Amino acid sequence: MKVLRLILILFVVGICLSCQTNSTNEAIEELEVYKILLTNKPKEIVVINQTIVGVFGEIETGGLKHILKGLQDDTFESLAKRNLSSTDITFHSNLGFDYQILSQKDFETKKEKLIRYYLFSRVGFSNDGKQAVVRFDEVCHPLCSKGAYYLLSKKKGFWQVEEESEYWRS
C-alpha cells in the first residue's frame, strides 16, 4: 500500500513539474514574440492588457480568422482563451527583456502621464507551437498611434511576422 501511495505521489509530482515546464516554455515563447514586435522601437513602458482583445468583435464573430487569412483555428482559440481574464506577467531579467512592464493596476494610475507606451495582448499559440497571434498597440500621443494583430510563424527556431492586420491609427 505504501509503495502504491509513493508511486501515485511521484506521478502527481511529475505531472506538476511537466505543467510548470510547459508554462515556463510558453512564457519564454511569449516573450520572444513580444521582442520581435519591439525590434527597433524606443525603450518604453510595456503593458500586457488582455482587455484589448476583441473590443471590435473580432473574437466573438470570428472575424479575426477572415482578416488574418493564415490564422489556424487552434491559434485563434488559444488567443481568445488566454485573454479571458487579466493576469499580471513578469519576466525574469535574465531573459533579456529590458522594457519596464507595468501591471494593469499601475498602468491605470500612470496612464495619463505616459507619452508613449506599448500594449500587448497575451499571445495565442497553435497546438504545435509553430504559429502565434498577438494584438499590439503602440501609443504615442497625440497623433502617432496604431494598433494591429500580428500573425507569426516559427521557422528554424525563430519567430517571424507573416501577416499584419492594422485596425486603427491616429
Describe the structure.
This protein is of the alpha/beta class. 35% of the residues lie in helices and 26% in strands. The protein is built from four helices and seven strands; from the N terminus they run H-E-H-H-E-H-E-E-E-E-E. Strands 1, 2, 3, 4, 5, 6 and 7 form a seven-stranded mixed beta sheet that branches. The longest helix has 37 residues, at 2-38. The protein is globular and about 40 Å long. The N and C termini lie far apart (68 Å). The model is unreliable at 3-22 (pLDDT under 50).
Reconstruct the topology from this structure:
Blueprint: H1 2-38, E1 45-48, H2 63-67, H3 73-82, E2 101-102, H4 104-110, E3 116-120, E4 124-125, E5 131-140, E6 146-155, E7 158-169
Parallel strand pairs: 1-2, 1-3
Antiparallel strand pairs: 3-5, 4-5, 5-6, 6-7
List keywords for this structure.
170 residues, alpha/beta, seven-stranded mixed β-sheet, 4 helices, 35% helix, globular
Q: What's the N-to-C terminus distance?
A: 68 Å
The oligomeric state of the chains shown is: single chain
How much strand content do the residues show? 25-35%
The count of strands amounts to: 7
Give the CA-based shape.
Answer: globular
Radius of gyration using CA atoms only: 18 Å
Q: What's the helix-strand series?
A: HEHHEHEEEEE
- Low-confidence runs (pLDDT<50, min 5 residues)? 3-22
Residues in helices, as a percent range: 25-40%
What is the residue-averaged pLDDT?
81
Please summarize what this structure is.
The protein is 35% helix and 26% strand. The chain has four helices and seven strands, in the order αβααβαβββββ. The chain is globular.
